[in-house]
Design goal:
about 120 residues; mainly alpha; 5 helices; elongated
Length: about 120
């Protein structure tokens, strides 16, 4: 379970960095979205239609990806700025859950291992 929490943190980190890079690109550069997405494995997988998470977070990511490149540059910058706040919120939430529950799951697994070892002896 700790690995799943870490995976979620990694996914939202990649999406947040992708969003930042896309904002800079829309303002100052002219690199294609696919070239930027290629630098982030989770974003690339999401563009390919693969499911990364479950529940509301997955719906948010699908909605985010489906609206990339669907409007003019000015509207797209506004959209990305709005989504930046949501991505920041999800990232902070997933980091907090990983810190809180990641070590808890490790400690529980360690205690179960010790209990089994004591019972076998």
């Amino acid at each position: 379970m700790a690995a799943e929490k870490k995976k979620e943190v990694n996914i939202f980190t990649q999406f947040y960095e992708f969003n930042e890079k896309l904002l800079l690109n829309l303002k100052y550069g002219k690199i294609k979205v696919n070239e930027i997405a290629a630098q982030y494995p989770s974003v690339r997988s999401s563009f390919e239609g693969k499911s990364l998470l479950k529940g509301d977070k997955e719906e948010f990511l699908k909605s985010y990806i489906s609206n990339i490149g669907s409007t003019d540059a000015f509207s797209q910058v506004e959209y990305l700025n709005e989504r930046k706040e949501m991505l920041k919120k999800y990232l902070a939430e997933s980091e907090e859950n990983y810190k809180k529950y990641g070590s808890l799951y490790f400690k529980i697994a360690l205690m179960i291992g010790i209990l089994v070892a004591v019972l076998l002896v």
